[in-house]
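Summary of Year 1 activities. Much of the first year was spent building the evaluation harness for sequence design. The harness presents a backbone, in tokenized form, and records the residue chosen at every position. We chose the following record to illustrate the format because it has been used consistently in internal testing since the harness was completed.
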């Protein structure tokens, strides 16, 4: 048994090294297609510390089909994601996510009911026309809220000096058009429920600082990774679909990492954590350099381990 545990630890160490290399080179890791429970278990076993998790499941109608146990299914996913998430942003239509407000798994708590408002819905169905989507912002009690990312220059200076008496938080309503027709045409990937980068960026900025980690394990065409990269955050993404994984690879210019074949079958037997490691910022997006503390060097820690 001990020999099996040692072998599992070796496989995890190999996987961590591949993740580290991709993050150091690209700022992004694309995992091979796998079920969300499997990818979540992998993240947990690797001991990866995640500042923000994006959770955008299919909504039990239309694309993705339907399942009678949808509420229990989503709750099981939330249980899996809470193991490593400080902030968790859970997407869905209001009538869907409303079922989960009183079922949030501890220690996560409801931080805010966020609304994505759009005017350009193409729906032709009689009756109410959808013009909004909901995102539940869930967070651990000690999770840091990065309000500084939403301050103007004057407010930011006062904030740093401790002189900003009233600190405005990010808005609870995000107004951006749907990606449909000619709107956002250059951004469209062909994914049937793709969200604009500008919408996901708001969530990234709420829950992370520069050099923090974003994880999305139902990532579709990779919008979360692009939003993270544009704002100098690391990201790990995964989707069960081979087609969407290929779209994400092409969109992001990053190839998926290959996992040791034996790891997937042995993932529940692996228990060893890994030590934290520092990773140099690789982002090349023409953003102005932020001032850093010279005593801390030019590397930011991406914590992976206990």
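For this record, the design step produced the sequence shown next.
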């Amino acid at each position: 048994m001990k020999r099996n545990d040692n072998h599992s630890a070796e496989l995890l160490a190999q996987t961590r090294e591949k993740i580290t290399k991709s993050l150091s080179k690209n700022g992004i890791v694309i995992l091979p297609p796998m079920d969300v429970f499997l990818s979540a278990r992998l993240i947990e076993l690797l001991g990866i510390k995640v500042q923000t998790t994006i959770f955008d499941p299919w909504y039990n109608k239309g694309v993705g089909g339907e399942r009678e146990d949808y509420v229990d299914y989503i709750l099981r996913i939330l249980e899996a994601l809470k193991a490593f998430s400080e902030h968790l942003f859970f997407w869905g239509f209001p009538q869907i996510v409303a079922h989960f407000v009183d079922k949030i798994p501890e220690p996560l708590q409801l931080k805010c009911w966020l609304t994505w408002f759009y005017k350009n819905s193409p729906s032709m169905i009689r009756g109410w026309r959808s013009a909004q989507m909901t995102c539940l912002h869930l967070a651990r009690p000690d999770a840091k809220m990065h309000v500084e990312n939403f301050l103007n220059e004057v407010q930011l200076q006062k904030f740093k000096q401790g002189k900003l008496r009233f600190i405005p938080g990010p808005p609870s309503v995000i107004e951006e058009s749907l990606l449909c027709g000619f709107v956002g045409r250059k951004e469209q990937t062909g994914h049937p429920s793709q969200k604009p980068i500008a919408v996901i960026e708001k969530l990234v900025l709420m829950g992370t600082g520069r050099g923090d980690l974003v994880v999305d394990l139902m990532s579709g065409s990779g919008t979360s990774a692009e939003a993270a990269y544009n704002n100098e955050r690391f990201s790990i993404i995964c989707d069960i679909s081979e087609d969407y994984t290929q779209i994400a690879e092409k969109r992001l210019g990053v190839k998926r990492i290959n996992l040791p074949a034996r790891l997937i079958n042995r993932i529940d037997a692996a228990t060893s954590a890994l030590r934290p490691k520092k990773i140099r910022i690789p982002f090349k997006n023409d953003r102005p350099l932020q001032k850093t503390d010279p005593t801390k060097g030019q590397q930011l820690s991406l914590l992976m381990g206990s």
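The CA atoms of residues 86 and 143 lie 5 Å apart. Quantitative recovery figures across the full test set are reported in Table 2.
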